[in-house]
Design a protein that fits this description.
With about 325 residues, the chain is of the alpha/beta class. The chain contains 8 helices and 11 strands. The strands form 2 sheets. It has an 8-stranded mixed beta sheet, with helices on both faces. It has a 3-stranded antiparallel beta sheet with strand order 1-2-3, with helices on one face. The longest helix has 15 residues.
């Protein structure tokens, strides 16, 4: 019988390798950075513990208030940000995430709560959903933190998620539709950036790289510890038969952003599902970049990334978004 500490049970290069013994090897290089005052933007950040029992924490970002057009005295929208990583890698402290949130905070003039939720396989789904929900309730509480208390507008809360974080964002925004947040807080909008949704049913041309798609499908079951009904589990396919209606999402606006990747078709099906469920076209926006899955983080100064960041800023400020995709 082979060595269980050497026998691979699941592998998705370049993300993770899992051995039969339970040993986990995360393959991406660790590049974590501390909170700071960003030299380029003047954005300040600091880490806060939300739940000592689970180890849940978040990194808070506050823009340079002297540069905010809202003027002194007006509170800022609060954005709950959920990183990507396929439910198995990633952190609010990752350098690429830190740089992205610094730019978002400065450009949109928002207070950001970047959540460091627990990862599978050590903490299978739904731990990520539970952590994100706890973080949202914590951020919504008027006295949760001095930055939030003094500068955050609890009536203008937004939920933003990238990739797997987009999946998590959908889950907790759906829950907002069924459960009230504390202190009268209100989720005004949800942003899904290249969300991690899948389905057993595949349209012609949907699969672009078969091996990537197969690994994404396998990784969902892996992240759940096998406790899933499959690819039409409503948590991974929100438009599956029997899934909760998207009309019950607890927000006023939705922005769905799609990349040229294995998740594009299912993201488009989600957008269509919003309209079919009764959302009006002026409340739902679609942004199709035509770029790859990671362009927003890897090429932040590219034309498409700048346009997308402007879209996010417009949403958070309450402006109507143009429906015309960038050239």
């Amino acid at each position: 019988m082979g060595d269980p500490d050497a026998e691979i049970s699941f592998e998705f290069v370049p993300l993770i390798r899992y051995y039969r013994s339970g040993r986990v090897e995360r393959l991406l290089p660790q590049d974590r950075v501390p909170p700071s005052v960003d030299d380029a933007t003047g954005v300040g950040s600091r880490d806060v513990t939300i739940d000592t029992a689970t180890g849940l924490w978040a990194r808070l970002y506050l823009p340079d208030l002297s540069a905010c057009p809202a003027g002194s005295g007006r509170k800022l929208p609060v954005v709950l940000s959920l990183h990507g990583g396929g439910f198995v890698v990633g952190s609010a402290a990752d350098a690429v995430e830190h740089r992205f949130v610094n730019r978002l905070c400065a450009r949109a003039h928002v207070l950001v709560v970047s959540v460091d939720y627990r990862l599978a396989p050590e903490h299978p789904v739904p731990a990520c959903y539970d952590d994100a929900w706890s973080a949202l309730r914590w951020a919504a509480a008027a006295s949760a933190d001095p930055w939030l208390r003094d500068h955050g507008d609890k009536e203008r809360v937004f939920v933003l998620g990238y990739s797997a974080g987009g999946n998590v964002a959908h889950s907790i925004t759906l829950r907002v539709g069924a459960e009230e947040l504390p202190d009268g807080a209100r989720v005004k909008g949800m942003v899904l950036l290249h969300p991690y949704f899948l389905s057993d049913k595949k349209a012609d041309g949907e699969v672009k790289k078969a091996w990537v798609r197969a690994k994404l499908e396998e990784m969902w079951s892996f992240a759940c510890g096998g406790r899933t009904t499959g690819l039409d589990d409503p948590r991974i396919n929100p438009v599956a038969d029997g899934a909760p209606s998207l009309r019950s999402l607890g927000c006023d606006r939705v922005l769905v952003c799609l990349a040229d990747d294995e998740l594009e078709h299912r993201g488009n099906a989600y957008y269509d599902g919003l309209l079919e469920s009764g959302w009006t076209e002026d409340a739902v926006e679609l942004f199709v970049s035509g770029e790859d899955h990671e362009f927003l983080h890897r090429e932040p100064d590219s034309a498409k990334a700048v346009v997308l960041m402007d879209r996010l800023a417009a949403l958070f400020r309450g402006n109507h978004l143009s429906r015309t995709p960038p050239a």
